[in-house]
Amino acid sequence: MILFLLLRARYPRWVLWGACALLFVANTFTAGADLAGVELIAANTLGVLTAAIMSAAGFCLLWWWLTSKGD
Fold first, then answer.
1. Which residues contact 43 (CB under 8 A, 6 or more apart)?
2. What is the pLDDT of residues 3-49, one digit of tens each?
């Protein structure tokens, strides 16, 4: 909380919103890369096309993200 107050006092609001937007985009790409890596491992291990498995994993990840309380 103290770090948030220091950043808010030092930087204008548009800089902080820009940084939040960049973090959101970077985390989205990172999550996509992680899912692609898991799909590659699953395809090599199972020897089948894993589009359905990865779609289910993506929906599970989205459900977890939307329902978690951030604890």
1. 49, 50
2. 778 888 888 989 889 988 999 999 989 988 888 888 888 788 877 66
All structural domains of the chain with their residue ranges:
2-67
Nearest to 35 by CA among 16, 66, 60: 60
Instruction: Answer yes or no: pTM beyond 0.70.
Output: no
- Cβ-based neighbours of 58, under 8 Å, separated by 6 or more: 35
Residue 62's nearest CA partner among 40, 35, 37 is 35
Buried b (16+ CB within 10 A) or exposed e, 15-36: eeeeeeeeeeeeeeeeeeeeee
11 SS3 class: coil
